[in-house]
Structure formats: C-alpha cells, structure tokens
Amino acid sequence: MNNSIDKPEDYCGIVGVFGSPEASIWTYLGLYSLQHRGQESSGIASSDGEKIHKHLGMGLVSDVFDQNVLEELPGHIAIGHNRYSTTGSSNEQNIGPIVVNHKLGTIGVAHNGNLVNSHSLRGKLEDRGSIFQTTTDSEVILHLVAKSWRNSIEEKISEAVQQIEGAFSLVFITKDKLIAVRDQHGFRPLAIGKKKDSFIFASETCAFDLIEAEYIRDVKPGEMLIVDKKGMKSRQVIEKTTPKHCVFEFVYFSRPDSQIFGEYVDKTRRKLGKNLAEEKPSEADIVISVPDSSNTAALGYSARSEAKYEIGLIRNHYIGRTFIHPKQKIRDMNVLIKYNTVGGVLNDRRVVMVDDSIVRGTTIKGLVKRIRKAGAKEVHIRVTSPPIKYPCYYGMDFPTKEELIANGRSVSEIAKYLGVNSLEYLSLEMMLNAMPKDNGQNYCTACFDGNYPVSIKECLTKEKEQKD
Amino acid sequence: MNNSIDKPEDYCGIVGVFGSPEASIWTYLGLYSLQHRGQESSGIASSDGEKIHKHLGMGLVSDVFDQNVLEELPGHIAIGHNRYSTTGSSNEQNIGPIVVNHKLGTIGVAHNGNLVNSHSLRGKLEDRGSIFQTTTDSEVILHLVAKSWRNSIEEKISEAVQQIEGAFSLVFITKDKLIAVRDQHGFRPLAIGKKKDSFIFASETCAFDLIEAEYIRDVKPGEMLIVDKKGMKSRQVIEKTTPKHCVFEFVYFSRPDSQIFGEYVDKTRRKLGKNLAEEKPSEADIVISVPDSSNTAALGYSARSEAKYEIGLIRNHYIGRTFIHPKQKIRDMNVLIKYNTVGGVLNDRRVVMVDDSIVRGTTIKGLVKRIRKAGAKEVHIRVTSPPIKYPCYYGMDFPTKEELIANGRSVSEIAKYLGVNSLEYLSLEMMLNAMPKDNGQNYCTACFDGNYPVSIKECLTKEKEQKD
Amino acid sequence: MNNSIDKPEDYCGIVGVFGSPEASIWTYLGLYSLQHRGQESSGIASSDGEKIHKHLGMGLVSDVFDQNVLEELPGHIAIGHNRYSTTGSSNEQNIGPIVVNHKLGTIGVAHNGNLVNSHSLRGKLEDRGSIFQTTTDSEVILHLVAKSWRNSIEEKISEAVQQIEGAFSLVFITKDKLIAVRDQHGFRPLAIGKKKDSFIFASETCAFDLIEAEYIRDVKPGEMLIVDKKGMKSRQVIEKTTPKHCVFEFVYFSRPDSQIFGEYVDKTRRKLGKNLAEEKPSEADIVISVPDSSNTAALGYSARSEAKYEIGLIRNHYIGRTFIHPKQKIRDMNVLIKYNTVGGVLNDRRVVMVDDSIVRGTTIKGLVKRIRKAGAKEVHIRVTSPPIKYPCYYGMDFPTKEELIANGRSVSEIAKYLGVNSLEYLSLEMMLNAMPKDNGQNYCTACFDGNYPVSIKECLTKEKEQKD
Amino acid sequence: MNNSIDKPEDYCGIVGVFGSPEASIWTYLGLYSLQHRGQESSGIASSDGEKIHKHLGMGLVSDVFDQNVLEELPGHIAIGHNRYSTTGSSNEQNIGPIVVNHKLGTIGVAHNGNLVNSHSLRGKLEDRGSIFQTTTDSEVILHLVAKSWRNSIEEKISEAVQQIEGAFSLVFITKDKLIAVRDQHGFRPLAIGKKKDSFIFASETCAFDLIEAEYIRDVKPGEMLIVDKKGMKSRQVIEKTTPKHCVFEFVYFSRPDSQIFGEYVDKTRRKLGKNLAEEKPSEADIVISVPDSSNTAALGYSARSEAKYEIGLIRNHYIGRTFIHPKQKIRDMNVLIKYNTVGGVLNDRRVVMVDDSIVRGTTIKGLVKRIRKAGAKEVHIRVTSPPIKYPCYYGMDFPTKEELIANGRSVSEIAKYLGVNSLEYLSLEMMLNAMPKDNGQNYCTACFDGNYPVSIKECLTKEKEQKD
Question: Which residues of A touch D303 (CB under 8 A)?
C-alpha cells in the first residue's frame, strides 16, 4: 500500500463483475479497494445487454467517479481498471479499459501485466494494415481478437492469448459476456469471487470485501473463464503452464488484507519478518517499519527479536493531487513531505528499521537522515527481500538497471551510501521459504536473480534501439 | 455565423499548416476564425519532424487552448479541427483530429463533410478484422489508408479516398508532410493560403486573415496537395469530377468575410437579398435582419426596396458555456435569451424580416411573437432560399425530414404556423442566379429539390434499420 | 455593447426584484441582459423572508449561475450585480453584492457608479474603529447605514446616502424589503419595472424584456423607493437635485434596445449619426461602423450622406474566457482577434468609419491598418462625440489623463497617429442637441469639457498621493 | 490523525512565520503538517513589509496552494489557517485567515479555539454600528482590535483579548509584525519554534519538522509574543491564568509525533494504553487498534497485557475529495469504505480493540460487525478515555449532547448497542494519571465530567433560543 517513489510505479488493478444490476457500482467499489495498484487514472465500462458504456478519467477512483457518472454506466456487466505510470505515456488516450467495435460487436478489456512481445506483434499487425490509437498492450490484444478467423468471441480471445507472451491477467466485456484469462505462469494475481448468482473477478480479494462477496479461488494459469447468463464455464486455453507467481506481490505490492496466490499477504509478510530476524538479527532497542507496507514484516521481525515494535515513522496521508501527478518537479520536497519521525520513540535508541525492498534508495536514504536527526543512536536496516538487481518485464515497472541501487554495488557499498550502521537483506532462499506452498518454487524471482521465465530478448533489443 | 437552434448544428472547420515554426499557433488562430463552424470541441495535432503531438478538448477554441498547451504542440506542421454535434456521439473519444500509428509511422486527419458509404466500409473493414474506437468517418479513412498496399503515404491516401463516397475536405498530417484532399464534387470548401514559404489550408479564407496569409486558390474537386520541405505538389487523385458546391455555405453557413468557391460570401448574400426583393417584394416601412447571418442579405433587400434597413433585433453574444452544451433541456429559455427587440425601431412599423433559411421554424416563430410585442403593425418574412424539404447527407446536419417545417407543408401553412402577415421564399432559380459563375449549375441543391449528386441509398437503408 | 479595450472597462449593472417567487431567476435574467455592463464577475443575493442567501463568482452570468445554484437562492426578493474592473482590485472579495450583518439584521447592496468621497469616509470610519474587508464603495455605504442612529432601515439608508458624494444607483436587500436610491444628479440610469404585483429595478430597461415586465419610469435623482409587502413607497431623500445624466451612456455604454433617461438609446444614437453627417460630412463611397456599439450611429450617418451603409467589419463573438480575464498579457493579439474585415466590401472604396468615441486609440489604429490592408482607397473616421480629454470620476473608468489620446493632442495630430485620411469629431453642441429633452442641459459632459458637477478634489489628491 | 465521522470535526490548525524570505512556503509546509487539524479549507496571508497578500481556498493544503500561488504570497511574514467544519457555515466567506483594513493599516488573524461570548460581543458591536461579513470569531476579535482606543497594535490586541472569553490560540499579521496570543487557560496548544533568526508559531511542533526549525517552548497561557525586526518580545496580557489544557488533544486530536503542552503526544498515548491495560484488562489473543489515532495506545495496552499487538484493520487513505466534502449524503458507504479487516489476523481470535474515544458510536459499531464477519470469536473494546457526556465549547466540535452515545446510557447499554462481548473505559483518574506533570490537574475534562472552566451560560442560552 506504499507508493513511495522508491517503489515500482507502473502497475494496474482490474475488476470484472457479471450478474449484478449494480455492476458498475460494484466495480467502482472494487477499484476503490485496489487504489494502491494504480492512482493515476481509472475507468469503467459497463454493458446493459445492448450497448457498452464507458467513463474514464485521470485521478483517484473517488475523483473520477461520482453518483451521476455511475448512473450513466448501467447494466449487469462491468469491468474496471486502475493505472499508474511514470512513463511519458501517461496520457488520457491510454486510460483503460479500452473499448472497441469489431466484427462481432463491441468488446472491452482491462489488463494487468506486461507483454514481452507486444512490439513485434504491433509490427506484424501494422504490416497487415492495422492502425493503433494508443501505446497499450490492451489495444494489441484487441487487434488480435478482432483478426481471429474463429467464430465465437471465446475462440477469438483464446486464439489471441495464445499469441501473446509475458504477464497478463485480463478481463473482457462484451454485450452479454464477461471473460477472464490469465497467462500460463500466473505472474499477476486474479481472484474469483461470488455473491449469490453474481461473479466478480479482481486483482486482489480485498476488492470483494466492500461488496461482501465470497472468495472462491484464483483463475488458474492458462485458464479462461466465461461468464454469461447460463453461468460460469472454465476452459484451459493455454496448455503448458508452470506457475511463476510474482514474489514481489507478497513482499510489497498487494494489500495486507488480500489473499493472493491462495494465501493472506499479511501472513506471508509476518513470516518474511520472522525469517529475517532469524537470518539477519540485529542488536537494537526497537524495531520500526517504513509505513504502511512494512508494518506486518516489522511486527514479525520484532516477534523473533529482543527489540520492541514501535511506531517511529508517521506517514502523511493528505498528500493530494500534487503527489499523484506524474510530472512532479520538486522530488525531494515530496519525499520529505511524506514521513514524520516520532522523536519520543527514536531519541537515544538503537533502531532497526524493517523495509520490504530497496529500489533506488533515495527515499530510504532521506529517512535514515531524519531518524538520526530525531536522536537515534544507531540505525540498522533489514530488508525482507534480496537486493533488486534486474528490471521486471512482467508488469512491475522498476526503473532501468542503471538506476537500481543494488546493480553493481555490494551490500556494504549500499550501506555506506545510505549512511546506516548496518544493512542486511533476506536471502533468496529464506524469502522463498516464507512463500506459501512448495518452498517457493512456483515463484518468479527474476528481479533478484535474473532468471526470466519468459524470454525478454525482444524487450532488450527494443531498449537497446531506444538508446542508440 | 448564426448558430441558432433552428439551423444545422453538426459541422466542422479544419485547418492545416506547413512550414511555420509556430504551426500550432497559426492553426489555433485559424480554428479561432472558424469557430462558427463548430463550437463543441476543438483539437490540434502538430509534428516537429520526429513525433506527432496532440491536444483535444471540449469547448471553444479559446477555452481548449492556452499558452502552455500550445507550447506543448511544437513543430512546423499542424492540423486542427473544430466540431459541433447534436447526436449522441458528442463524446471526447470523437474529438478530432484523430491520430493513429500505422505501418509507415504516425498519421492524423481532420475531416469536414460526411461520407455516405462509411457504414458499409466499416462493415467490410470489420469483416477483415479491423477494430474501431470512435464512430467518426475519420477513423474509417485512416483504416483505409493503413490497409492500402501501396508504398508511399500519398499513394495510400490516394487509394483510400478513391473508396470513400460523399463529402470530404481532408487535411492529413504525417511526421514530415501535410496533405490536403477534396472530394470529386467539392461539396465543402477548402482554400489554400500562403505566407512566405509556408502553406495553409482552411475551410474558409477568413482563417488566413489573422495570420496575414494570402489566399491563393481553392483545392480543386478530386485534387490532392502534398506539402513537404520540397514545396507543394498537386495530383489529381479522383478523375471524374463535377463541381457540386454546397449552396448553403453561401446562403447561411460561411462567414461573410470569407471567400469560398472563389467568391466573397458577403457579395453573394447581398445578391440573394437583391434577387429576393425583386422576386418577392413587400409593402413595408423597414427591413430588418435576423442577426448576424442575414445582415448582408437584408442590406441587399433594402437596396432594391422602398423599405429602409434598420437594426430591429439585437443578438446577445454572452451566452456562454451553457448554450454550447449539447444536452440542453430548457430550449425555449435559450431562444428567448438570444435576441432582444429594439422597441424604438419596430413600434408602429410594417416590418419585413429577411432570414436566410427556415429549418424547424421554432426560433423564427418566437421572434415573430416578440416583434409583434414590440409594437410592429405587420410582420412579413422573406427568405433568401427555397423551402428546405430534404435532409443533407453531405455534412450539413439538418434534422430528420419529419422535423423540417417545409416537409409536407405549403408556404401558406408555414406562414400561418409562424403567425406572419406574409411569407415568401426565394425561388431555386433566383437563388442559383445569385451564385457566382455559370448561373449556379455547379451547386448542390439537394436539400431544396432532393436531387442528391451522390447516391444516398446506404444512408436511407441505415435510417430505416434504426427506426425498425 | 462593445467592450473593446479602447473603451472604459470598469462599470456595473445592477438589478433588484421584489414579489416574485422566482426572484433570483428574474435577477439572473436581468443580469444576463446587462452583461455588457460588466463581464468579470457576477453575484446575486436573495431573501426568503428569514435569511439572505448569496452566490458570487468570477466570469459571465451564464457561467457563474446554473440551475442548482439558483435553487439555492430561494425567496421573493433578490438583488444582483455585474462587475468589470481593470484595476488590481479584481479579486473575489470585491464581487458584489456585498452582504453584511448589522444591528437590524442582514443587509446587502449592489452599487453602480463611483463615490468621490469614499476615501475620506473610509478614513473617518476607520478612525472610529471600523474595519474593511473589501476596497468597494459598497462596504463604505453599508458601514454608514450600520452606524446610523436612526431607527428604521429606510432612515438609516437615507442618512447614509446623504453623506456620500458622487455617482450612485443603489439597490438594497433586507430580510423583507427592497430599497432603491439614486444620487442627486442621476448620473447612472436606474429604471423601475413592474409585472403584476412584482417590482423590478434595473440599470437599463433591456433587463425587463426577458421577464416581460413593463417599464414604468426611472428612479428620480435623490429619490428612494421602498418596496415591501405593502407595495412601493417613494421618498425624496436628497433635496437639492440637478439632473446631470451621463451622456456617455447614450453615446456608447447602454444597450441600443434599452430606454435610459426616458428615451431609447437606439434613437439617440441615430440622431448622433445624423448630426455628425451634417456637421462633419465626408466624401466617401461607403459608411461602416465599428460593431456593435456604432451600428445605429453609422446607419444615421448614412441616412444623411451620399455614402451607403455597409458591413465592413465583422466582430468575433467567441472570444471566451481568455478575453474577460483582466490580466491579459498578449494585448495586441486580442485586438486582432476581435475584428475581421470584409474584403469584398472595402476593396477599392473610400470608406468612412463611424465610431462612438476614441479613448486610447490603440484599437482603432489597428482597425485602420486592417481596413487599408483590405484594399480601401481612403479611410475617414467620424466620431459621434467630442474628444475625451478628462477622466470620469463618476463610474465610467476611463484611463488616466495621460493615457487619453485626445489629452494634449490636436485633432490633426490624432488623425496622423491613427493613419487616416481625415478625422472629425461631433461638436459638444451637436452631441447635446441629439440628447432627449432640453437640448442636453441635463447632462454631464465632464469627460469632454472638464466641468465636473460634483467636486473631484479628493480624487485628485488621492491620485497625486499615489504617484508621489 | 483520525478523522472518522465519529470524531469531532470542527477544528483548526494555525501557523505564523516571521523572518524568512520564504515565509509563505514555510507556512504552507506547516499547514501541510497540520492537515489533520482541518481538511476543509486552507488559507495564507503574507506581508512583504508594504502590503498584505492573501490566498484562500476550499480543499486540502496541497490542493489549495501550488507554486504559482505561493509566488504571489511574497514577504518575510506569514500566517496560515486550516479549517474543518460540520456546521452550515462551511462557506468560502469564512475561510481563514481573515484580513481587514483598519485605522492603523491592514491586519489579519488566524484563530484556533472557540469563544464562548462571541454572541454577546457581536451584539454589542452591532449596537455600536459594526457590520459583520462572516460568522467567525476571528471577525469579532478584529472588530475589538479596531475599536480599541489605545495607540499601538499590541495595546489594541491586548485590550481585545481581555474582552474575549473561551479558548483561543491566535496569530496576527500586520505589515511589519507577527503577534501570537493564547487564552488564560491555554486550552489549545501553541508552540514557538526558531530557525536561525526566524520565529515560527504553530498549533503543534510537527509543523516545525519539515522546515527543520527547533522547538523552543509553548506560548504561555495569557501571554502575548510580539515579533518584529527587533526580535521577539513577551508580555503577559492576561493576568490570572490557570492552565486547563484540552486533555483530548493528547487522547485523540494531535499528531503522535508532536509535542504539545510540553510532552510528546505519542508518549502520553502509550501511557494511556498501559494504564488502560492495568485498570481494564481483558482475556484476549490479540490487541488491535483503530488506525491511525489509536496505534500507540494499542501498543501500550499490548505491552501490559498477554495479548499480542496485531494489525487487524487497514485504513484506506485514498478517500479523496468526496469524503472531505461536508455535505455528504451516503454516510454508511463512506464508513465502510474507510477500513478493511485483515482476515488472517482476526479469524478465530479473541480480539481486544483499543480506541481513543467513542463519540456517536456509529463507526465503531460498523467496525465491530466487520471484525466479527472476519471470523473473530470475541470482540472486546477498551477506550483510553472516559465516556464523553458533555459537548465541548472550547473548540472541539462534538455533536450536541443528544447525539453523544454516552449521554444517558450506561456502559453496558453502550456495549449492547455496539454488539461487543465487553466494553470498558479508562477512568478519569487514570486518564489524568497518564498526562504529563501534576497528575493532570492542569487539564480541562469538561467533556467527561461537565466541569467547564469558563462559563458556558451564553452558549446554552443561544442553543436554547435556536431550538425554540
């Protein structure tokens, strides 16, 4: 739930609803619960069985939608999309869901993840005479759907997703159907909820709570679920599947009260904290977290340590529109503006600060300075994940390799840069040990070890071209 | 320049500039001068040789653009579009210019006119797997361009415009070219201007005045003009051409200080007024106009009549955003709010009011009431065009046939409905007599006599389907 | 109705309504009709008998108010205020009407005019411990009302207006009364209208037309009118009265369809034009006006001249918010943006352009350039008033003496500056000859001859202090 | 830092700066840190030695101000005000600081607190002819300042504050001075900070942290501090002083990282939690807080209890503009939207939830329902303060007595209403025991025991009148 500027900033949250007369309101509430997955723009498309309605806008969910807007999104089917982007493409054209007309009627899609072969797919499509109005993967996918020669929309989507590679959790809306699909590795989460006869898909289960829906299970890797008035049907559209869930969803990104990949995020984070305390103990008086994303991990660390859990940093939650604007100039100001130190807690103490990850290191460096200023005798940092050394090409928009602080620096060099008394990272092994099931072999750890489950060759070529 | 709700309300103004370092500002000024051709939304796309930039918005030109916005539209090429629409499609997605990526790069287009075969073209494109994000003709045209197998962008556009039918004046922008095309009948105007080495295209020549460019000539029916750094080249892309200029551009729509179809609008309107006075005289004390579109015609009428020209109606120009909003509810209020009667002029007089056309008749009926209230002894109406009995399918968005007051009503029935002492229309013959060149045989008069130069069969079928 | 930047720009329009259940809507419509008297801000205060409600905002009447806003202004009494200001004081605090609480309850006021002793009155009030939240005359007046020891609100207002000097047409609102007062010279207009049992006060009678009220008579100089549920009562609150109506209201400022000072503006302007043609003829082919304020005068000129009336300049009415913003930087742009020349009319003609007045001369100089550019062989200017040489301290906010083009320049010097073939002004005598009644002896001509009916000593002192 | 709708909602935060060339930016940063004290509107007034500049607006600090706005607030002196109000008076007119002109020049004031005799003071002032444009206490105070016959501004303010009764922490700005005053009981906090030669006043010390100023001491009850270019001077303007600090500032309102009344808020809250655990233990598995205001108290409770501290509720911080709007209709929706329950933590546990206070009880009732739904076996509530039975007339805008859940209800009745297994409040004695110094005899506990240190007779009379 932390959106510090040290953390990945281009991600998405998606929702799909079928069967409620208030489908768009449910979607709105779901998006609201998934606000942490994207604060830049938000959109909903709904179907009343005849026509697909749409509303999109820049800003927070609660700013983009109001009572009047939701009333103009009638129908029993809806999909929604939250988005946040640091790239130049933060324009209104790219706000999801994207909705188009094609041979079989109107279709919309919301996408969480990142395709690794969208560049070549666009090229091929353009060669065949296609035009593109956005720079989104969603548009590529819809082109493939429309180009398919198969007869039904399910078949068309099925053919389309067999051509795309990378990470994708997708919800489609048509006049009368809601369709969800997940890639063969299940990189990004996608859960199924149910309330009476209605079905809900959402990036995280926290989206079910406000509407009091029940969490059924996850969409399986390679699975397509088709919901229409006859109910929900499952089809395996991608045969060869190997789960490679994003470990970072547990470490940092998802909301603690959500279940993803079949487990409570909160529980896993506590375990990460405990493992960290055992593997990388520290002599300190108090344990503090970087609120809010590290709170549970810090509690876990404290449980296995002598040091007491204390609230040493307060986060300011009134940051407002300025912060969410992607073109901010006064970076440092905004960092300072975000946290306040609690002098009474920190003064004259040896402090161990638990954080979930370090990306660029700028925010945490600033925090260390302030904690010392508040009187801390020692500052130790413990991180519940290994050093991030490789960019993510599956939807977690880390900066370029060059900007990652752990790229080409030893842990002691980073410690020196941050100005701390000690710095320790949890090992890859012990991080995976905290993951539910199978000791973590079902997880993608590419950002830590460079083992990319899906080839990123095309991405690297494209990056190289852009530099030259 | 009149945008009374009795008049056609779905039209466009377009501009294109090549060769000025301030191309987007020139385009802005051009659009500003063409504001009367569309007040609902406005957009500009510019090219700096590398990238195409775009800004669109709902509202008047002066509201959509400001200094900051124009600075983010750099480059020496730009196209612009004003639009107004009464149909449900007045959403932001449809604001022009529309810009897309295709095989050869980025391309944008601004369109004035209306295609009669867009429905079937969309169908064919969708059958071949194309997707549509808007309901505009522009998107159909860009699909055809992208689908063309020819090599150069000129060839592709050329192939595309050979497939479309109806009225179209088009300006295209690419990374390094500005291209203008006009349909084989030249329904809508499109003029070429020049300032030093820069070229400007615009719907009307009034767009040249603010930037002090010189009017060269019109784009010819079926002609394509390609402007790039080597200068301007002409190609005839449609062979069989028969001029069928929209007579209504002279009668009502264009700005009096513009030259269209090679003649000053103002001059033609004066002639219309004179012809009207000779063909349909009236015994009256004073001649008044419905400001502002009928001013010159009323002057012309007065010149051939005993009655003096007077200013009997004042138009309120501070109507503001409310009026331009397409979903207005309080129709009558806005009509009343628009004109005030000058008591000192009208009282105790026999008044002949010259108007350019009567569409639905509701505004003029209201005006007659108010003129009588101001003390006029008699009210006579003289119209500088024949009764409008047929919808326009070439870009002048008259209401449906059923809503046209002259549809199925005799002139005396209309006179009775309006509550006037007499009502007379100019004959088709004498209207055409006022047109420049060839006694008007180069003009489209479909809205008066139902002779549609391009088959509207597909439009009628579509209308019928929508009703059923 | 012209608000060119050559013209005075700090003025007001006021409205008051008693007795309609839709008092605020009537006031809104009145303000809308008086939009030409102030485009910067607008406000309405209404009373439902219990409480006074208020809404104010920057912008045009139609932008400040909408259906929702008007519904929150309930009651049968309302006053309204339009304002425009070039001075630094264009802040939201100063938007009228100003409403305050005092001993007897709540009271609001809208003011048209300018006090010449407000500076010393403020000083005296401050010496006695008063505080000021705005820089308006209205607040001074309300302080005087509140400070009065008399018992009734009528008596208090009466005492207050006996202390203020200069130009004031005022409407007051209290919980249960509407009160109108005019200064002893009747500088600014203030008319009384009636519709059934309701009374309406307005700066000009054009405000009565939209609500179909009947014009009764003007508020007399020095008269107070009190309207409450018992009806309308008149009291003479200032004994010594000498009519000194602002001649400039007829010449330029008021709307042509209004009656002010007992006569149609339009009629007087036609007479001004006729007098001008007779006194200052010209050898020309055509007469054109500077639209819209000089239209009638040009018609009058043409009637007494050989030259035909033509429409040679078209005014652009879509200028939008940018123009009304008082801090505009790109002055020249906005001047150019405002008028277009009709080439077909002007080319190869000897043109006489009739204008109502010349203040700074910058706009007209630009117009002359453009008319020549359009091909005019000769340009002659005829002005329906004498040279403006002295600032107005009674509510017509001319610039400082130094900025007036006629200050210290002969007519031939001005002609040279403007670049015209000839320039002639109507004489003071012939201007007054066109005024209704008594050959104009009831008019203030201070801006032409420096004869100020009310001492401006305090204003001059203040100006001097500000310079030093 | 909690602004749940169960909590008092009409309060203020104030800041004053003298001596920084960036006074308005410092003030902005201070207000930003004090955002929790008022989210409805914000304003800053600054002085450049010549003129006082001002900017006010509805919304969060970061929305009201941006770079441009701050640049138009030049000078080395500034004061600022955050405000939140549930009453009808949430209009723009009432936004602070209020700035007026009076005899000695311009003066502005920002006020935190509530006067108990403003009604009679207004009455007396109106009797003497004063007018009021707002309904704020600030305007009353400025009237008294202006009415004072003393010579210097210090003397005038001094005389003014001797007439007002109730709670007031005030900062005044003049052309060249910054003046701070606090009432004789020191109800509301007001701290003095210093950075080099600059002085800063702020409601809480957290406002000093962003600008890295040093906390010196508090303004003493009855003390006036005058800062000008000669430095800071202290004067005791009210002689008889008895500290009666608002205990609720410690219990709930202030930010945990602030020092108020000479102690860290955080420290006191931890002690409240510990006292509560000792006085009112519970048999439970886990202790959770109602985030964020009860976090530290819950930690303290856990430290003296068997139950582990856990994070069982997650607060949503993306609530946006809708929530801060004072006229919200869908109350319940917004309550639900605010908190999510962490299922993994709560399921199958006996939960003790620590809260700082219960006002209306509606939010907490909703929370209890959700905690049970998340699987909790038992829900116990422990409150770190006694039942609130009496309204506050000193600036903490509790609802009316009738709306207070503890008014006329026993603890067991409240427990039943909330649906909890047990409910216990901390005793008055043990709450005061947790306060710094003197076992709490310097604190106002009126909301708990009805002992009002300053007579509230006038308030009760006014309330009664309003009901009748």
Answer: 308
The three-class DSSP label of residue A322 is helix
Are D183 and D313 contained in the same domain? no
Subunits with 3+ Cβ pairs within 8 Å of C are B, D
Tens of pLDDT, residue by residue over C42-57, are: 999 999 999 999 999 8
Q: Which residues on chain B are in Cβ contact (under 8 Å) with C60?
A: 318, 320
Backbone angles phi, psi at A157, to 5 degrees: -60, -40
Chain C partners within 8 Å of D99 (Cβ): 133
Task: Tell me which of C12, C206, C392, C459 is the catalytic residue.
Answer: C12
- What lies within 8 Å, CB to CB, of C153 at 6+ separation is C104, C107, C145, C172, C174, C177, C179
Average pLDDT, chain B: 89
DSSP H helical segments within B304-358, as ranges? 320-324, 331-336, 343-346
At residue C385, the pLDDT reads 97
Whether residues A219 and A286 share a domain: the answer is no
Over 80: is that where the pLDDT of C87 sits? no
A133-166: pLDDT as tens digits: 998 999 999 999 999 999 999 999 999 999 999 9
E strands, B237-318, in order: 245-246, 259-260, 263-264, 286-289, 308-309, 313-315
Name the closest residue on chain D to residue A25, using Cα atoms. D333
pLDDT, residue A328, reads: 27
Which residue intervals of D191-342 are DSSP H helices?
A: 206-209, 247-248, 265-279, 295-303, 320-324, 331-336
- Give the per-residue SS3 of A232-296: EEEEECCCCCCCCEEHHHHHHHCCCCCEECCEEHHHHHHHHHHHHHHHCCCCCCEEEECCCCCHH
User: Is the per-residue pLDDT at D5 higher than 80?
Assistant: no
Using the beta-carbon criterion (under 8 Å), do D126 and C143 form an inter-chain contact? no
Is the same domain home to A198 and A322? no
Domain with residue A440: its CATH number is 3.40.50.2020
Q: D402 to chain C nearest CA, in Å?
A: 27
**Rounded Cα–Cα distance for residues A132 and A140 (Å):** 8
Number of structural domains, chain D?
A: 2
Q: Report the candidate in A190, A255, A301, A303 with the shortest Cα–Cα distance to residue D341.
A: A255
Query: Which of A243, A278, A300 delimits the end of a domain?
Result: A243
CA D424 to chain centre: 25
Q: C188 is in which domain, residue-wise? A: 11-243
Separation CA A237–CA A155 (nearest Å): 9
What average pLDDT does chain D have? 89
The Cα B272–Cα B266 span in angstroms is: 10
Same domain, D297 and D226: no
Report residue C130 CA to chain centroid gap: 30
CA B425 to CA B419: how far, in whole Å?
Answer: 16
Q: H/E/C letters for each residue in B22-38? A: CHHHHHHHHHHHCHHHC
List pLDDT tens digits, range A354-410: 999 999 898 899 899 889 988 999 999 999 999 999 999 998 877 788 889 999 999
Of B315-319, C234-238, D63-67, D159-163, give the lowest mean pLDDT range: B315-319
pLDDT at position D335: 61
Based on the residue annotation, tell me whether A459 is a catalytic residue of this protein.
Answer: no
pLDDT in tens, C272-306: 999 999 999 999 999 999 998 899 999 999 999 99
CA D19/CA D200 separation, integer angstroms = 9
Please name the residues in contact with A425: beta carbons below 8 A apart, sequence gap of 6 or more.
A280, A383, A385, A386, A387, A411
Query: Could you write out the DSSP letters of every residue in B85-142?
Result: --STT-SGGGPSPEEEEETTEEEEEEEEEEESSHHHHHHHHHHTT--BSS--HHHHHH
**Considering the entire predicted model, what is its pTM?**
0.88
Backbone φ and ψ of B178, nearest 5°:
-120, 125
Residues of chain A with pLDDT under 50: 1-10, 86-90, 321-332
CB atoms within 10 A of CB D123: 12
